[in-house]
Design a protein that fits this description.
Layout lengths: L5 E4 L4 E4 L7 E6 L10 H19 L3 E6 L14 H9 L3 H18 L15 H13 L3 E4 L2 E4 L1 H6 L12 H7 L16 E6 L15 E3 L1 H13 L3 E7 L3 H16 L4 E7 L2 E3 L2 E2 L10 H6 L11 H8 L8 E3 L1 H21 L12 H18 L4 H20 L9 H18 L5 H26 L3 H13 L2 E6 L2 E6 L2
Parallel strand pairs: 3-4, 3-9, 9-10, 11-13
Antiparallel strand pairs: 1-2, 5-6, 6-7, 7-8, 11-12, 14-15
Helix pairs in contact: 2-3, 4-7, 4-8, 7-8, 10-11, 11-13, 12-13, 12-14, 15-16
Bound molecules: adenosine monophosphate and zinc ion (ZN).
Length: 496
């Protein structure tokens, strides 16, 4: 049974019943990273949030095409220089080398956070033809004009014709006039200050450039997402997502471009994640207020007292709803780490609990099954992860009470226990996609430690000091570790 969902649609500023365009199928587009520097933790929060949304949609029974792009051209800095070119000049690299390096870094980080790859990950530079075609369509419908090789979107004409420029961000035209500086060097070329660039003629020193009907140049930043979402999901699709800092101008302009090119708004539902803060301020690359994921994992930062494992950090992300801001503090990270360890400890024993459960349904079953239902309905209600986790922790408490004998196993039926076990594993490992990395890292250090001890013992044996060699083996046995000397060498295992 496919779940009925409620989504908070930023366009309407309210929760709505979700109705997909095609029954059982969802097209979802999420703005991806600009690959001109290392991904920061704020970016990670947004992409982890959408990963959990993607995973939950699959769990809820939908077939999902999830498109998340790579922005490797067209994102301008304050002085009008392309972010990719800036990255390239500073590092003395080819722009594509910069893009490649940070794309790989981004993918590595997404893997560390255990996220699924999207169904399609298109690059802006791989879709120049589609972007040029979209500019042509907008020009043909009269919503753009050319000036000296550059093409601009005509916002006054768009508004005059009754299209809703400013609806998503809730801005009125006067605000748009003041705020819409799109960092172009040639602001005065535009007919109107709120107009924005679709195609930009490249200056002599601009590194990334393509031929077009108007000039050798490059696309405006907003165009890529319109062109690529249309190509892979159609003119109208279900969900468009991104961080809420992208509402204006990026998403507002995406809507204008799609409507300008084909008369329809691109997406039915707009989902926006809230910002990760550091010391109460937005974490941002351009403002230098960031902590890198690696600094957080290693503890190498003035903001934290120690390192936190990637999954503890991910668990920390899960403490807030995706639409709420989340402030990084050392205390909050420590609390999250503790909660995560407790969760993992309980999950570890799930499969080794051998209790005699009741053969028939019980009263306690009702409470357990109801809590399981709650944990799902919180997710159906605009992906409320923190509330769902609270229900999961109620279930964890029940497991611990069973384990410790505070609840008799006869109070719970075998079939309810099986459902509970399955549900906990699915939600934690498949939907929230956590894994026990605290355990993993301790098992890695255990491997290292054992290797060292066995090497020392091999030295002792080499010297024919059998007494010491045996003493080491006996002491390890007392510590629950079995050492076996064989033809292939010495091996060890836990003595179960
Ligand atoms: P960028 O690479 O800057 O284009 O950002 C990639 C994604 O990360 C976008 O969806 C941004 O909205 C999002 N993002 C940027 N900064 C933050 C932050 N501090 N917290 C959460 N998401 C962010
Ligand atoms: Zn975008």
């Amino acid at each position: 049974m496919i779940h009925a969902l409620k989504l908070f649609n930023s366009l309407k500023r309210e929760k709505e019943d979700f109705k997909p365009i095609q029954e059982g199928r969802i097209g979802m587009y999420v703005c991806g990273p600009t690959v001109y520097s290392d991904v920061h933790l704020g970016n990670c929060r947004t992409f982890v949030s959408f990963d959990i949304i993607y995973r939950y949609l699959l769990y809820a029974g939908y077939k999902v095409r999830y498109v998340r792009n790579i922005t490797d051209v067209g994102h301008l800095l304050d002085d009008g220089e392309d972010r990719m070119s800036r990255g390239a000049r500073l590092d003395q690299l080819e722009p594509m080398e910069v893009a490649q390096r940070y794309t790989v870094g981004f993918h590595d980080m997404m893997q560390i956070f255990n996220t699924k790859a999207p169904s399609i990950e298109p690059r802006a530079t791989g879709h120049i033809i589609e972007q040029i075609k979209m500019v042509e369509d907008i020009l043909a419908r009269g919503y753009a004009y050319e000036k000296d090789g550059s093409v601009y979107f005509n916002t006054p004409k768009f508004l005059e014709d009754g299209y809703p420029y400013g609806e998503l961000s809730g801005r009125v035209i006067d605000e748009l006039l003041n705020e819409s500086r799109d960092n172009l060097k040639k602001q005065d070329e535009k007919n109107h200050p709120s107009d924005f660039a679709l195609w930009i003629k490249a200056s002599e020193d601009h590194l990334m450039r393509w031929p077009s009907p108007w000039s050798i140049g490059f696309p405006g930043w907003h165009l890529e997402c319109s062109a690529m979402s249309t190509k892979y999901l159609g003119e109208r699709f279900d969900i468009h997502g991104g961080g809420n800092d992208l509402k204006f101008p990026h998403h507002e302009n995406e809507i204008a471009q799609s409507m300008g090119a084909c008369g329809t708004a691109p997406a039915n539902y707009w989902l926006h994640t809230n910002m990760l803060l550091l010391n109460g301020r937005k974490m941002s690359k351009s403002e230098g207020n960031t902590i890198s994921p690696t600094e957080l994992f290693s503890g190498n930062s003035q903001h934290i007292s120690k390192g936190y494992s990637p999954m503890s950090v991910k668990f920390f992300f899960l403490q807030a709803h995706y639409r709420s801001p989340l402030d990084i503090t050392d205390d909050a990270l420590q609390a999250a780490e503790k909660g995560f360890k407790r969760l993992m400890e309980t999950l570890k024993v799930l499969d080794i609990i051998t209790l005699q459960f009741n053969a028939s349904a019980t009263e306690k079953d009702k409470e357990i099954l109801n809590t399981i239902r709650e944990s799902k309905s919180h997710m159906d209600d605009d992906f409320n992860v923190p509330n769902s986790l609270a229900s999961i922790f109620d279930l964890i408490s029940i497991v611990n009470s069973l384990k410790d004998g505070h609840i008799s196993s006869q109070e719970v039926s075998q079939s309810c226990w099986d459902t509970l076990k399955e549900h906990l594993k699915t939600m934690i490992f498949e939907v929230f996609a956590l894994k026990n990395d605290v355990e993993e890292s301790s098992s890695k250090s255990m491997d290292g430690l054992m290797q060292l001890i066995l090497e020392l013992r091999a030295d002792v044996r080499e010297r024919k000091d059998w007494t010491t060699a045996d003493k080491i083996r006996e002491s390890l046995k007392d510590a629950g570790i079995q050492v076996k000397d064989g033809k292939e060498g010495t091996s060890w295992s836990y003595d179960i």
